[in-house]
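Justification of resources, computational component.

The compute hours requested in this renewal are based largely on the per-chain cost of generating structure records like the one below. Each record pairs the submitted sequence with a full structure-token output. That output is archived, and it is also reused by downstream analysis tasks.
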Amino acid sequence: MLLHPSIYPLRGILYFVTHPTLWLRVICALIIALLFAVGSTVVFFVFTLKPQAHALDSFMPEWLAWILAVFLVLVEIFAASLLFLAIALPTVADQLFDDVVSMVTGCPAGEGSCARGCWLGCAHAGVWIMYLVVARLFLLVVTAPLHLLPIFGTILFLLLNGYLAAWALHLHWFDLRGFGFTAGKKFVRSHRQAYTSFGSVAVLLEMVPIIGMLFMFTNIVGSALWAIDMERSGIMPALAVESSEV
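The structure output for this chain reads:
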């Protein structure tokens, strides 16, 4: 049964926690990621929080400056974690997605462009993945000042960044099913609200200090579960023009 997209990041947590087999597949990567998360959290809070708070208190009350500085530091930690995951652990993320698909459906996930041995296809997929990563980092930087608007600004930040985040999580799915970047882009655009809903919750989870890195893995699980349910409901990139709801 296809659920509301915002539920799938939470389903990803539950599925990951209740399936120890997945832990074993990503344990090394997870330990490395958590160590990076701890280190980056300490570094950013120790060395960047105070300067940013002092810079902001020239324009607003001191208590508000400190609150906003914390949000900015969280964004910076999130950006660093995102870049680390994209550079250091991309194959682990794809393998985790494939494992979930295989466990739920009982069938192999399929072969992406790299597995099929097409170096051109592999390079092409990698280019688009990095394109979205760079786009996400750029958007994070541009939208970070939205936190200056308490509550409303943070919500808007999540909505804007969530769309690209969810799209990036499904790039591997599109590759597995043989859909090019253009077909995937049309599909995501035609289901913008659904991808924004999923991504907003995913980004919120990933911004939690330290354990946000863990949620990056569970969001991959959630995106796989969502993709499976969409396929079972007949909703795929090839049907992007005909389908209007997720």
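The CA atoms of residues 21 and 166 lie 25 Å apart. Residues 20-47 form the longest helix (28 residues).
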